[in-house]
């Protein structure tokens, strides 16, 4: 078991990324994954793994298929670090092939089948897609929200959280996200509730003037919103706004 956080410099990360990328571009996936495995298996800061994924993605994006194959094999390592590296590397393909990135995003979430895999990927390939390509990603987000897999559904809320903390001056886009969530406001599956609640919570931090009337509308319509979702959504609201909403909720 790994009990201590591995210390490694950004310079060393870049050196490893360069070596691994050269192997990837020549089709030597065995050597490339061999170079990366010590980091994927280590307890290491996500910021370092993000750097590793970004460096590999930028170096290999001119050969998309090579990069996608590498991401598949990194994910197959079944390590937490592998999901960070692969989903960050995928973002380098968003400009070229958003559809394939979204398909891989869903595939990796389902394959990982854990809450932390969902959240890692939801904040990276899916969340970054929403930031960089909002209009094109919105239909994918809607599709994810109706997916049969609970982690895929949850990832939409995580992506909205990521977008909301990165893009704080786009009220119109935030309103569209609330409209997207509205049909799912009565969700009961606990893992999905947490994801949607997380998205609402972060919207409330930066756009309380949008969140409060949105929630008030749902509550006045007698929507059966789960208490965990409501409590999470109210996290960053001031006392007056919380009181305004709590009047509509029994038992809070």
How would you describe what is shown here?
α2 packs across α4. 73% of the residues lie in helices and 0% in strands. The chain is an all-alpha fold and 252 residues long. It is elongated and about 60 Å long. It has 14 helices and no strands.
- Provide the gyration radius in Å: 20 Å
Number of helices: 14
Helix content: over 70%
Report the order of strands and helices: HHHHHHHHHHHHHH
Question: Based on CA inertia axes, which overall geometry fits?
Answer: elongated
Structural class: mainly alpha
Low-pLDDT ranges: none
Question: Mean pLDDT, rounded to whole units?
Answer: 93
Proportion of residues in β-strands: under 5%
Q: How far is the N terminus from the C terminus?
A: 42 Å
User: How many E strands?
Assistant: 0
Sheet with the most strands, sense and barrel status: none
Defining key terms:
mainly alpha; 14 helices; 73% helix
Briefly say what this structure is:
The chain has helices at 10-25, 29-40, 46-60, 64-75, 80-90, 98-112, 115-132, 134-145, 150-166, 171-181, 190-206, 208-220, 227-233, 239-246.
Please render the helix and strand layout as text.
Layout: H1 10-25, H2 29-40, H3 46-60, H4 64-75, H5 80-90, H6 98-112, H7 115-132, H8 134-145, H9 150-166, H10 171-181, H11 190-206, H12 208-220, H13 227-233, H14 239-246
